Each structure stands twice: as structure tokens, then as C-alpha cells.
Amino acid sequence: MTWLELWEFVEALPYDSMTRSTLAGDRTRRRWTEHDYMQASMLSLQQHLIQVIWAAHLEGKPPQVSPWPLPDLRSLEQLAEDEARKARQADARRRYFEATRPGAPQDTEHARRLAQAREEHLRLVAPGGRGAHN
Questions:
Q1: Terminal C-alpha separation, the chain
Q2: How far apart are CA 33 and CA 31, in angstroms?
Q3: How far apart are CA 49 and CA 67, in angstroms?
Q4: Residues 27-52: pLDDT tens digits?
Q5: What is the pTM of this model?
Q6: Cβ–Cβ under 8 Å, residues 66 and 106
Q7: Which end of the chain is more exposed for a tag (fewer CB within 10 A), N or C?
Q8: How far apart, in whole angstroms, are the C-alpha atoms of residue 111 and residue 100?
Q9: Maximum pairwise Cα distance, the chain
Q10: How many CB atoms lie within 10 A of CB 42?
């Protein structure tokens, strides 16, 4: 058997086989089967239909139901990358809020660029300026 033939056999394996799961990066066997996905989709669809029927035929607001949670299919490397990105975004938001809170020391470079942009804007909208519409 050649490597190509072996690869064709591996590709023909069912989605939930251990070999396919391992090739996809799943080392902990947390992968759902196609049957599990179908059941979760059916449950979410039934919850949605109940809300639609409730709103159409019964008085009052339908209850809020959340869709059935699907498993996280990201690999451990992808999870680590996402956590690092979230940490960077949180740090950037924290620095922004600290810089823009009242009484915070200002970034002089940002203040200088903002003043230049304001002067340019005022010059353009002033009567007789290039941007003035007569």
C-alpha cells in the first residue's frame, strides 16, 4: 500500500474516529459526533420555534432561552493565542481609559497632533479658506 492509498483511507474515516480527531489536533477526545451536532441543532431549532409560536399565539413576552452550547473546537494552541490576544486588548483598553480619565496626565505627542489637526480644520473652514463653500 502506498502512502497516497493510506491517506485516502484516513480521509475516508468517519468524522468522529479517533484518527481524524487526532489529525485535527484533538488530543483529549472532546470532539462531538455528527449525531451530537444534529441533536444540538434540533434542540436550538425547537427552542426558537417555541419562541415564535409563543409570540404569535400567546399573550406576553416569550421566555428567553439560550441556544444549546456547542463544544469549543479550537486547539490548545489556538486557545492560548486567543487568551493572549484578549489580554493584549484588555491592556490596551485599560491604558486608554487611564489616559482619558479626568485629571490623568496627558500624552504630549497626542495632544500636539490633536492641536495641529484642530488648527488645520479651523483654517479650512474659516471664511476664505480652501474648504470654505461660498
A1: 83
A2: 7
A3: 12
A4: 666 667 778 788 888 998 998 898 88
A5: 0.39
A6: no
A7: C
A8: 12
A9: 84
A10: 11
> Which three three-digit cell numbers place residue 48?
426558537
The grid cell for 17 is: 474516529
Per-residue cell: 13: 474515516
Residues in the chain: 134
* Alpha carbon separation from 113 to 61, 80, 116, 122 (Å, rounded): 51, 37, 5, 14
Question: Do 75 and 25 meet the contact criterion of CB atoms below 8 Å apart?
Answer: yes
Distance CA 8, CA 56 (A): 51
pLDDT tens sequence across 75-95: 778 889 999 999 999 988 888
